[in-house]
Amino acid sequence: MQSRPPWTDRPPVLAWRERLPALDAGAEVLDGFRRHRTGRNAALVAHYGFLSVFPLLVVLTTILGFVLESRPELQADIIDSALN
What we know:
mainly alpha
């Protein structure tokens, strides 16, 4: 099965691209975005970024709890600042 060319390479679009350099640059950006599957890659980076940061936040919160265990006034200040 033969794949269709991208819409940026169709004759009517090519005619406009030849006349307007800015449109040609925009079409190249969109074509590169599609060709490199940038949207999918951005979603993967966001997903794995969240998965890696969330456990780090849990660990930091646990450490902060142990450090502030003997300082209830500082605990109250942090809780108040987080809620306000």
